[in-house]
User: Fold this.
Amino acid sequence: MHEDVLIPGGVFAMGVALGEGYPADGDAPVCRVRLDGFQIDATAVTNRMLAAFVQDNGYRTEAEQYGTSAVFHLLVRAPASEIPGAAAGAPWWLNVRGADWAHPVVHVSHHDALAYCDWAGRRLPTEAEREHAARGGLAGNATPGAMSSLRKANTAATSGKELSPP
Assistant:
């Protein structure tokens, strides 16, 4: 079910260097981080993988329980009647009714991700590991390549009304 890849350790500049970082999210200032080598899943969790977890456990994500999830304002394609308002403290994220993991696997909370990892015998990478792996060895890459690919794949679907690839 999961294929691992080895990410070599080393030192890298973590954060966003072009003045685009958001300090409250830990994006800035840029700092040097040293990591040991580590294993990480070769791919992101797919809808099919999460569906197996949900079916096996009857699990309901927090987005499903709440009935809404936050969607970046530029990507919302839902009617105004489906948008109860902005996410608390982050007005560029809008709560959208019906946005959940099946549309695609982006409306999964940290708690949901930990439950999935426990079921799958996995662990979440640290923020430094995720960023180091996503940069693909490209020092100073402002938009990590792996993450931009995921954004492109999921952009049309983050309205909560369309499906991403399985």
